[in-house]
Amino acid sequence: MEVIIGVDGTTAVKAVAFTLDGEIYATHHESVPVNYGPSGEAEQDMNLIWQAVADCLSSVVKQLDGHDIVGIGLTGQGDGVWLVDEVGEPVRPAANWMDGRAGDRVAAWTADGKDAKVLEVTGTSLFSGLFPVLLEELRENEPDVIARAATQLYCKDWLRFKLTGERATDYSEASRTFLDVRDASGYSEQLAASLNMTDALALLPEVRHPAGKASPLSAEASELTGIPEGTPVGVGQIDVAVTGAGLGMVENGNTWLILGTTGFVGTLLPSVSERKSDLSMVLATGNDAQVLEFMAPMTGTPNLDWIKKMLGLEEANWGDIETVARKAGPGSHGVVYLPYASPGGERAPFLDPHASASWQGMSLTTEREDILRSVYEGVAFSLVECIETLEVQDDLLVSGGGFRSDLLCEILADATGLTVVRQDAPEAGARGAAVLGLVSADRYDTVEEAARALGATTETFEPNAENRDIYRAAYDLFLETRAALRPVWPDMRNLRKQTN
Known about the structure:
Number of helices: 18
């Protein structure tokens, strides 16, 4: 039997071996800590991430009973600053996408018009974890360290480097630096110059198609993982984009949602000129002028993990927790939760590095289930706002760990009035990486063919018309509450810094 391995490098690193008809044969997960600092820092040890991936691959190989590995596909978390020196050693921990230390710099770039220049060329609105602004922040505060850097390798690019020795990226990751998404012709020297960052271009690696020709696994990586030397290792794609391949969403007009560490709502468009909002982000796919327009609110599953801990429910399983939350009913008895708990603030569908989480509408009659359900609703409402901004009207195809929750799927369906379609099979990110890996390994000619081969069944959640009015009222109140509190968010952040 033959298998393809998909590697997903996030805060929860995983390797998944799929049979060539899409069944999961073996899997292994490892956690890599994120280290948070008092000024919004969010960092990870790049070598720990690589060691976790190597351990995952080694574990999967031991479960394969000698079955043939036809290739390795890669994906991983995007954004942040991941710098290595001339010999390939990290110059510092990776400052990942959640890093919020550059919040004041984002405000300064917005005031002097640099944000508009970034948006025009890359299609991306500024936020604290975006490479150009975060690199400038690090250069100012750690000049000697950053001066040693030779290459910017995002998470999955770092993993490919460790597996093959090659320094490269793909179009989706390059879009987060200086790539001109209007024609995907290459890095924009004009943009770099307008940001006074021309020298940063030397840090950026070659750009390849995400399903482009594979590179051979090195002897060193083979010895560490147990995978045969020369096994094809694909180029890969950023996690939010690669999930589309795993879901079979590769045609213009296809839309999908993800709920993991962050949220995601995205649609494939034939060109950037057809984008629906200047508040969105845009990634080149490498397929002519095609782009993925998306919003990625930072209001994901950490909100649920947080409230689980705060309510003393660490030992409870998620099914039992949802049973408690259902006792509250739609609207959470008037409790409104703003799910802006990320240290980096919020980036979609609005940009505010000072965004903060809070509850409103509580009283002495508020029960635990009201607080709990309000978190589920707040996370869902954040996605609803993105869906409306991007003018999505078709069924909502969803994936990611958060959407294993039936309650979240039901709230999303009821609040939008749209059918939610959930892929039954887990590991959509790793599956998408495997799809691209199959094409890179020349097992299929197109991503569409590979996606069909590794496809999975789905289940649907139809909207409950009886809940529509109360969710519309709750959603409107969610927006009004945020608007009322937003003016004091900067002072809240400042007080947080002063008291740390």
